[in-house]
Amino acid sequence: MLSVVLPLFFLVGVRAQTYSATYLPSNAPNHSEQGQAGTNQCGTGSNQTSQCQNAYINSVDDFCVFAPPEPGPASVIGNTERFEVSWCIKPGYGTRLIPDGSVTGAHFVQTPDYVQVTGVGDFTKINIPKGDAGGELDPHGADGNGNPIGGLVFSSAFTGQIQQVHEWTNFMSDSQFCFRACKDGPKAPGLCEHIYDVMGCEWNMPGNYGQGFAHCVGDSGEPMGVYGASTFHQGDGRTPPPHPAPATSSCTTVATIGNSVSVSGAAIPTNTTSSPTAPPTTSGTSATRTSSGSSSTSSSNAASAIHLPGSGALVGLITIVAGASIF
Ligand SMILES: *[C@@H]1O[C@H](CO)[C@@H](O)[C@H](O)[C@H]1NC(C)=O
Ligand SMILES: *[C@@H]1O[C@H](CO)[C@@H](O)[C@H](O)[C@H]1NC(C)=O
Ligand SMILES: *[C@@H]1O[C@H](CO)[C@@H](O)[C@H](O)[C@H]1NC(C)=O
Fold first, then answer.
1. I want to staple 257 with a disulfide (CB 3.0 to 4.6 A). Which of 61, 64, 115, 229 is the partner?
2. What is the DSSP string of 16-44?
3. Domain boundaries, the chain
4. Which ligand has the nearest atom to the CA of 267?
């Protein structure tokens, strides 16, 4: 019996780090997995109907998340995880752009074993229905083809050169996000564990979920769910507390992140009847944000925002107006 178990264990251990393929954005196929809805051949543009499924996680102002391609109440993460598309802060990856002002907090941490960005915002602007507690995206999924199927993640944070990251995990809800991409190596499967998919960001990736933007270095922390010699599994009787957030240092704060796109990701206008949420009280954070370099384009963006339904665009417009009156 033992002689069978040991070789199997060995094979599984090796397989976890032997990836079937490694791509760069420049040589990725149209579809990296069977059943893929979008594409990995994304070009160097950006537009809000892109079906690109390549995500990048490079720095506090250069990252992407996966989110639904279409708006509407049926687009909860649980329903759309198989065909979600990439939404980025930075243009030029062939993806959709996260509208400015959607992300109100983003905290990037570079550790020896992974990079991570955690934060908050209004992700109804990238098609996540209001009230969706969300779910988890990862390169595995029920059939091993990933959620989304064929989603690829790249980073230049480890070597300065863009490379594929084979183990990653991204939680999305209507108001919170976290994305960790693990450096290829023996620790990657544990530090980018994907089996705790109902536990949310703060349990899986303890860190800073406050407002504002910062880039830090940090310690790697402990693998999700592993507490010394015992490993928790979802459904086990008692849920252990999250690991403490690993220490960070050398933090650089950034006033704002963005791309001067203020239009919603909703390619098809939604026919929403919900009343707009109250505008945020003018705070130091929003004033700082709107004082950024993107303010030169804010008037034209405001014009396009007016045509969009939904509370997100209205809040964005109010933010721009508030910024303009301050400066
Ligand atoms: C690539 O994939 C997309 C999305 O599935 C599809 O619409 C397109 O036709 C494909 N392009 C080629 C050249 O096969
Ligand atoms: C949007 O971006 C995708 C991916 O780069 C590209 O294939 C598509 O042609 C673009 N669409 C428009 C309308 O520019
Ligand atoms: C929007 O909703 C209203 C009320 O339900 C309906 O009368 C109208 O036709 C809808 N418009 C579109 C474009 O679907």
1. 61
2. TT--S----TTT--S-SSTT-SSBS--TT
3. 23-227+242-287
4. 2
